[in-house]
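From the pipeline queue, job 12 of 40. The input is one protein chain; the requested action is below.

Action: predict structure.
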Amino acid sequence: MVVAATLRDIFHTLWHPSGFGTLARTVLRLSWRARTRCLPAGSRDLAGPLGLMAVVLAWTGLVVAGFVLVYWPHMPDGFHFGTSLSPERSSGPTAALYLSLVTVATLGFGDILPADPALRLLAPAQALVGFVLLTAAISWVLQVYPALGRRRAFARRLSAMHSHDSDEVIRIADAATVTRMLDSLADGVAQLESDFLQYAESYYFSERDRSLSLAATLPYTLDLVAAGQQSDAHAVRTAAAVLAETIESLAARLDSSYLHTGGGTAQTLEAFARDHGHEDVATTPAGDG
């Protein structure tokens, strides 16, 4: 049951379209909350990577412990011991832990071998689970970091737009240019929401550099929405409304999954910024609909 629950958590975290395993969520939340107490101020952006490592170690520990509970009751009668080992002295919980660790790591030393037919089937099954754990760790990294790259690129774009007062440009530029700009931003926000849905653990990665932090730069989109809503062009107002809707949807997901403020879009984005260490971010309420 322990091993099955662990495999279910791995599946829901890595391969379920919109899942996030209970164990993985709990470990990452604890790592996130502990970062201010356990990590120096300049290293708190390591909370995400350390959280991933902690989850993988928790998965491995549970698999090892689960198979220890299987092997231990069958020692020593259910196993063959090497000539250098005494069955009477090598059949306690330590031996069961040793066998479980060796098997899950697929080392196969062969000094303790299962003799019971059922155990002979379980040992290679555990080795397969160990391979799944290794694959899961690699897959997780390959899945999360591309999503983080998209988030940083979008944040960098918003930072550059803020630096050049793009909200003022929206008020004076031609409608076609502004519409394309707002539509492109709406596409980017929709992609971010999809990433948070598929890779929920990516929330627990923070950026010290404000220009790369989505939490620090996302509130500026509300200024862009407000500027677009003041346009005389219907196409621009429509594009601004679409952008506002995607921002509200993303904020609602962040609030329901992580922040739990119960407030509007502006309040949620401010809470998002504070949670990621950017407490001086201010938002305009224009995007709250």
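Job complete. The first helix runs from residue 2 to 14.
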